[in-house]
Amino acid sequence: MSATVTGEPSASSSPRPGFLRRLWERFGHLVHELGKFGTVGIIAFGVDLILFNIALALLDMESLTAKIFSTAIAATVAFIGNRFWTWRNRARSNLAREYVIYFVLNALGLSFSLLTLAISHYGLGSIWPAFKNPIADNISANIVGTAMGTTFRFWSYRRWVFLKPDAQPVPATVTESK
């Protein structure tokens, strides 16, 4: 009988069983890190979004200043979440060192949001006034810029801030001679 009649998948319709296991063994830790990083990021994004809009509407800040203000506070929230949850099992170096490097990299990540906001609000907004409104500012800074900045942040934090634990030395094996 064919695979469709018995209900069993044919060998050609599914990957080898060992393939998925090897794939998970190789990248499973990365999936977990991405999930935790994303959770922390969603919380920090909410803080950023709320504070950005409060700064625009209630504090009457200029767009770029409002984005810097909101991102600085959201970055602190994200640092705490990433240090003590996302990468809690990574090697700990000096907390001040991590915090300084984190904020330097975060400033570079912020530049993506500021660049997309400036292009939209001041560049396109000077041609089409529809780009000079809170909705366009939110789309350019908090969707486009944040997506670009988040990709950069995940890569850079793993590489320079939250370091891998030192590799454990491999014990020497004793060879028996017969």
What does this structure look like?
Belongs to the GtrA family. The chain has helices at about 5, 15-55, 65-85, 95-125, 135-160. The chain has about 180 residues and is an all-alpha fold. It starts with a helix and ends in a 17-residue tail after the last helix. Mean pLDDT is about 80; it is low at about 165-178.
Task: Please render the helix and strand layout as text.
Blueprint: H1 3-6, H2 17-57, H3 63-86, H4 95-127, H5 134-161
What are the defining features of this structure?
single chain; 178 residues; mainly alpha; 5 helices; globular; transmembrane helix; membrane; transmembrane; GtrA family protein; GtrA_DPMS_TM
What characterizes the major β-sheet? none
Shape summary? globular
In percent terms, what proportion of residues is strand? Answer: under 5%
Helicity level, as a percent range? over 70%
Mean pLDDT: 82
The count of strands amounts to 0
How are helices and strands ordered from N to C? HHHHH
Please tell me how large the radius of gyration is: 23 Å
Subcellular location: Membrane
Family: Belongs to the GtrA family.
Organism: Phytohabitans kaempferiae
Membrane topology: Multi-pass membrane protein
